[in-house]
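#help-structures
NK: newbie question, is this the right format to request a structure? protein is Mitochondrial fission process protein 1
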Amino acid sequence: MPDGEVDFFRDTWVRYLGYANEVGESFRSMVPLRVVQASYGVASAYVLADTVDKSWKMFKKDGRPKKVLIETGDALLWQTLASVVIPGYAINRICHYSQKFFSKNFRKVPLSARNLMTVGVGLASIPFIVHPIDNSVTLLMNLTYRRWVKD
């Protein structure tokens, strides 16, 4: 991407669609499993949309199959890690341990209220994990995949 150009999928509000599964994970204790699974569907659709976008841009820019494949792999791997796998696991664990904490320390609080507290902790955590995860995945990609496939 040229300097200064806004990446629709990574630099705008659309980036937060990749975090739909974190919202689903936050609500896991209060909603049917299908809702959580649907949130992963939204996040996965976002990942695929960004991958197609990056692949198409590389195809128009260069067109060589190797370049397009490398760009496709880069986008798919980055988005899968930064949007679905790592933040989904992080929020799942944050909510799990919050639920355990609330169950142990707030026994007199009704279960529905403890579940709501867990949802609040999960949702409140999302803004704090977005940029560190994105930056960490970028660093990981720079140290591995992007070194391995550079020309």
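mod (FA): yep, format's fine, and the tokens are attached above. Helices lie at 20-26, 33-61, 65-105, 111-143, 145-149.
NK: thank you!
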